[in-house]
Structures are given as structure tokens and as C-alpha cells.
User: Which sequence fits this backbone?
């Protein structure tokens, strides 16, 4: 049963490059309602925990270091079929392979520094939303 919610982070590269506002506007213009929003800086422990599913991948250390290298924006977004709709909006992991007009195509630096995170399943969306937000921060 789809929850119609997904979790996103605007990653440190996009914040540093000044794209935070434009990216949030893309969310809204594409029909995603903002249910929760937070400007924060992940600790190394938080980044390690968040990306635990990738612990065996060779880039895990680099990914963790990158994600705690600067502030991020975390958000819960709502729309019909949110997880899939949002993956379409952000585009492929590697911006070089992303479709024209997608957020990663327009704002990402590289496959590693790819501007935004988007949950890959309803199950992970629920876990990720709960990781970053308590019930009284969701509206
Ligand atoms: P996503 O679901 O599209 O975000 O992609 P993945 O689940 O495959 O990877 C998770 C994140 O790890 C990506 O969004 C990138 O930030 C990072 N990543 C993926 N591939 C690489 C890589 O080869 N090197 C590094 N340093 N990071 C990577």
C-alpha cells in the first residue's frame, strides 16, 4: 500500500552551489506538497547510519564523508505515487545519464555529488522520514 510520501535531501554540493531555493521550487512546481522541512548538518554517525544499506559498497566511506561535509535540507514530500514520481523528477544517479529537465541533470556536479537524495521504495521512505523527523515536525 503506497503511502504517497517520499523522503529527500538536498545534498551538500547543491546547498554549497546555491541551488537550495531553485530545487525546493522544483518540488512545489511539480506538485509535491512539503510535509516537513529541515536545514541541518548531518554528523558522521548520522550519515553512516542513514547510508548503512550501502556499507558494503566501495564508495561508502566517500559517500558518508560527502554527506557530512556541509549542511543539507531534509524534507518529506507528498504526492500520488510519490516515490516513483520523485525518482522521475530527480533523474538517474549519474547526471551524465539523467534525462533533460531533471533535477540531477540541471543541478548535480557528478555521480557522487548528485544534488538530491530520493527514497527508492515506500518501505525505505517510511524509515527515512522517521530517521529525520518526529511526528510533531510533520504537517
Ligand atoms: P540513488 O538511489 O540514485 O541515490 O543511487 P544509489 O542508491 O546507487 O547510490 C546512493 C548514493 O551514493 C548516490 O546518490 C551517490 O550520492 C552515491 N554514489 C553512487 N555511486 C557512487 C560512486 O561511484 N562513488 C561515490 N563516491 N558515490 C557514489
Assistant:
Amino acid at each position: 500500500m503506497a503511502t504517497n510520501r517520499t523522503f529527500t535531501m538536498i545534498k551538500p554540493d547543491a546547498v554549497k552551489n546555491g541551488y537550495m531555493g531553485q530545487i525546493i521550487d522544483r518540488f512545489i512546481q511539480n506538485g509535491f506538497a512539503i510535509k516537513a522541512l529541515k536545514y541541518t548538518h548531518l554528523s558522521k554517525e548520522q550519515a553512516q547510519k542513514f547510508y548503512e544499506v550501502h556499507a558494503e559498497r566501495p564508495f561508502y566511506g566517500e559517500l558518508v564523508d560527502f554527506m557530512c561535509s556541509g549542511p543539507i535540507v531534509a524534507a518529506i514530500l507528498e504526492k500520488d505515487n510519490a516515490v516513483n514520481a520523485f525518482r522521475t523528477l530527480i533523474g538517474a544517479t549519474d547526471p551524465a545519464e539523467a534525462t533533460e529537465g531533471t533535477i540531477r541533470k540541471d543541478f548535480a556536479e557528478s555521480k557522487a555529488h548528485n544534488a538530491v537524495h530520493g527514497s527508492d521504495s515506500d518501505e525505505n521512505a517510511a524509515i527515512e522520514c522517521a530517521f529525520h523527523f518526529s511526528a510533531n515536525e510533520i504537517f
The helical segments are 12-16, 20-29, 44-50, 60-67, 82-90, 103-107, 122-132.
